[in-house]
Design goal:
Shape: globular
Strand order of the largest sheet: 1-2-3
Helix content: over 70%
Radius of gyration: 19 Å
Amino acid sequence: KSRVRLMLTLLLLAIGVVMVLSARFARAYYDPPHETGGRATYYFSRQLIFALLGVAAMFITSRFPMWFYRRISKLVMIVAFGLLALVLVIGTKVNGARRWIGFGVFNIQPSEIAKIAVILYFSYLICKYKSKMQTFRYGIAPFAAILLGIIGLLHLSAQRRKTNVIAVIDIEIRNARMVRVKDVEDGLQVGKGEAGFEAHGCE
């Protein structure tokens, strides 16, 4: 299963990179703002570099033990909320929405960190309360509270499209728990042969 997920991930990534070439080829070639220097593959090459870095990061992070992700899941969620709130104050406004926070030469998009936080923390909660997931207190309330908080902050920063993505992630993770908790755990270890929380224990 892990190999199939890995191949599908790489296939989707490759399709995305090719789509960037198709969509930005003409714009990069004519280069109205003189950003690309007339190089038709400017955006494609940049996207390819980041894609390769992302694949390398995926393989590196897949080697960390799952107890590490359990421990940092709450911290990542707190950081995500903090950045989503911070972008409302110091975020760069583009096309009416505040999406980016600049740190020198680096720009951070808090909504992307929020996606990772939702995957990590929701998976942790499902693993922790797997025997109580059919109850409102453990199976609905904490997920709904976190989801509403994130969506509320995204709406305040006019990132309404991102709310749909976060909602889909929540639905997928919570639907997966109805099948088997192990399926969610496996999903956190795309590049790893053994199962995630199952291999290291949920307790």
